[in-house]
Amino acid sequence: MSTPGPARGFAAGGVVVVTGVMAAGKSAVAQALAERLPRAAHVRGDLFRRMIVSGREEYVPGAGAEAVAQLRLRHRLSAATADTYAAAGFTALVQDVLLGADLSAYVALVRTRPLYVVVLAPGPDAVAAREAGRAKTGYGAWTAARLDAELRSPRTPRIGLWLDTSAQTVTETVETIMAGTERARVA
């Protein structure tokens, strides 16, 4: 665990949303960033999906209404959790895949201010290399190319701090985020 350093711009009690495609480094970056802050909670969006024990519908290309409803539920639960941690004085770092209109919709769910958005946008080759080098597999029905195309499409709003982290380590990415908090602030 890293020694907490100065927060250089993240307000205690704020919410930081870290998003990007699968294998972009969201988990590692959000965790490392949380470890740098004096009081922080790491809200992992996927945990809310995995809490559904029976009746879970995976959100895959062409997903039906129930899968979409469960995705929206996951987003509401993680936003409410982030707001609750922030109200208790923690900086809440939310990590999830929020692309296209889902990014704007998620930002609208979070009531806490200040609110920051960090979009990790490594190139597709870097994502493929990272995916090949990790124990868990994020891609199934989704492909890295399909998610990257959605990330870079006009449907995904250009809000917050966007970083091409293709050639960065987790530590370098955290340092870049800490230095760019004002650019990350969306509300």
Please characterize this protein's 3D structure.
- The protein has 187 residues and is an alpha/beta fold.
- The chain has one domain: Rossmann fold (3-Layer(aba) Sandwich), CATH 3.40.50.
- It is 43% helix and 13% strand.
- It has eight helices and five strands.
- The chain has helices at 26-36, 45-50, 65-87, 101-109, 124-132, 144-152, 170-179, 181-184; strands at residues 15-20, 40-44, 91-95, 115-120, 161-163.
- Strands 2-3-1-4-5 form a five-stranded parallel beta sheet, sandwiched between helices.
- The longest helix is centred in the middle third of the chain and has 23 residues, at 65-87.
Outline:
The chain is an alpha/beta fold. The chain has eight helices and five strands; from the N terminus they run E-H-E-H-H-E-H-E-H-H-E-H-H. It has helices spanning 26-36, 45-50, 65-87, 101-109, 124-132, 144-152, 170-179, 181-184; strands at residues 15-20, 40-44, 91-95, 115-120, 161-163.
Query: Radius of gyration, rounded?
Result: 16 Å
Strand content: 5-15%
Structural class: alpha/beta
Please state how the strands of the largest beta sheet are arranged side by side.
Answer: 2-3-1-4-5
What order do the helices and strands come in, and which of them pair?
Layout: E1 15-20, H1 26-36, E2 40-44, H2 45-50, H3 65-87, E3 91-95, H4 101-109, E4 115-120, H5 124-132, H6 144-152, E5 161-163, H7 170-179, H8 181-184
Parallel strand pairs: 1-3, 1-4, 2-3, 4-5
Helix pairs in contact: 1-7
Please supply descriptive tags for the structure shown above.
43% helix, alpha/beta, five-stranded parallel sheet, Rossmann fold, 187 residues
